[in-house]
Amino acid sequence: LDLSNCSLHSVPPGLAEATAAIVLDLTENPLTALPSGSFLGFIHLQSLAVPLALECPGGNDAWQDVTEDSSSRLCQGQRNPCNTSVELAWPCPENSVCAPDGPGLIQCLCDDPFHGYKCLREGTFPMLLFGGILGTATVSLSLLLWGTQRRKAKTP
After folding, report:
1. Which of 56, 49, 51, 45 has its CA nearest to residue 74?
2. Residue closest to 29 by CA, chosen among 6, 48, 13
3. Which candidate, 63, 73, 35, 75, places its Cα nearest to that of 15?
4. In this predicted model, what pLDDT tens digit does every residue of 95-104 receive, in sequence order?
5. Burial 18-34, CB ≥16 within 10 A → b, else e
6. Residues with Cβ < 8 Å from 132, sequence gap 6 or more?
7. Of 42, 84, 114, which Cα lies nearest the Cα of 56?
8. Range in 72-81, 86-95, 109-118 with the lowest mean pLDDT
9. If you ran DSSP here, which 8-state letter would residue 49 be given?
10. What values do phi and psi take at 85, rounded to 5?
11. End-to-end distance of the chain based on CA atoms, in angstroms?
């Protein structure tokens, strides 16, 4: 994805849809900062060129090789932050595993069969019970309102 020399003053909002990008060039743009969530989901990104004034997203530790030339910084080989010997600042909760979510970013995914807040619920979501209660409540309320409000409806 070549966004070089596009007169970008900030990261375009549509960039979030390009998570499948492998190579991204942002050089020759008057960018002043890269917000921390700009590359959320960019797990396939292997080469990123940014203006020299900017750091690589996630820091130099998020990339295998960072090189500089006269006008740009090239970040290559995105590292998996889950496979480091350094202890994570916010480790994943019990019953979950760490997964990369972009340069220097992680996400915690629940192990099967756990789900819910902090992966504390075991089993599957009770869809039949939830649907039954929701359907019964909706039908009951509809019948109640129909019965109490039909006399107020005008007939032609």
Report:
1. 49
2. 6
3. 35
4. 999 999 999 8
5. eeebeebbbbbbebeeb
6. none
7. 42
8. 86-95
9. E
10. -80, -15
11. 64
Element (DSSP H or E) covering residue 145: helix 127-149
Q: Is the pTM of this model over 0.85?
A: no
Residue 41 neighbours by CB distance under 10 Å? 17
Give the pLDDT confidence of 31-71 residue by residue, as tens digits: 988 887 889 999 999 999 999 999 999 888 899 999 999 88
pLDDT tier for residue 74 given thresholds of 50, 70 and 90: very high
For the chain, give every domain's residue range: 15-78, 124-153
Contact in structure between 52 and 73 (CB atoms under 8 Å): yes
